[in-house]
Amino acid sequence: MDTVVDEGLAIKFATERDSSYARWVASEGLDIISGHYVADLRAIELKPWSRRGGRGVFINHDASRTSNDCYVCEIPPAGGLAPQRQLFEEMILVLDGRGSTRVWNDAGRQVSFEWQAGSIFAIPLNASYELVNLSGVEPARFVSSTNLPPVMNLYDDVDFIFNTSRDFPERFSGEADYFAPKQETKGLLLDTNFVTDAVELPLLSAKERGAGGGHVRFSMAKGSMNSHISEFPVGTYKKAHRHGPGAHVIILSGQGYSLMWSEGDEPQRYEWGPGSLIIPPNMWFHQHFNVGDTPARYLAFKHEGVAIRNSQGVPKSWISRRIGGDQVDYADEVPYIRETFAEALAKVGLEPAMDASYEAELADLPPR
Length: 368
Ligand SMILES: [Fe+2]
What we know:
It is a single chain. The protein is an alpha+beta fold. It has six helices and 23 strands. Strands 1, 3, 4, 5, 6, 9, 11 and 14 form an eight-stranded mixed β-sheet that branches. 13% of the residues lie in helices and 30% in strands. It has two domains: 16-162, Sandwich (Jelly Rolls); 185-363, Jelly Rolls (Sandwich). The chain binds fe (ii) ion. Fe (ii) ion binds next to loops.
């Protein structure tokens, strides 16, 4: 529950809400949208970002300002962003348009690749890079997650973070196929630095999260940030779970809604479609519901600042609450969950298709 205290105590901590990171965003001339939800990243308003030569806006709330951030940026038609290098990691999902990226190191090796709406890629640590819009008519827009907040809060030195000559050859040394789309998987991890189209990418089966879902995980550019894509079928919803801050969930396809709540509070409802962004606050339960007539698919940019895992390394958000984890089994849901889901589907002439998932769960459900 969000416990509110008296103003006197709040004032004593007011200065600690400011940070080097928040001051840096302001110095770039950009706003921070402070919230848990954006209905459509393709439609949000952007401001000129003169240093980069595009337009942008940052999106994050208190918790993610110290873990990983999120911003949306637009590249003008027939234009490009100013070349940049950075001592932090970045993952990009292209929302609209098409373009190309050139990446190079101080040793003089360079690689270029082209992208389109739905492409995902990461910028290797401290490699120089340049993003160019290949359309002369339409802007190109992308959403990005970075771990700049802890880096800026630690060093508080813009010149150091953006202007240090240092290659990290273990991360990137100009390999010709570095950004070629690859198919090899290791467990649930797809070992690639580039996805051509996240909407069409084949997924792996992951029944642990409920409802016959597809799943694939990424750890691109040998970075510490990770991400995953999940998909769930028509008439289904995923199990509720909770974890630390920093997950940025971007809807790739389908229609539905999410519920989010802090333990003990009423769930809040957020409607979504392609381009919606949901940012579950620290340790809030969240649950995603498909109410469209196609499978629903999302991409989650993640950052694990504090590992909430069991002794075997399994995220507690994948483990039943019945044995101390942070995932709510279907069998333990409050009636509200199923009632509101059935109502939402009825409005579009559909019915829940959850019986098989409820049944399947019982096979390995720990006793209460
Ligand atoms: Fe989650």
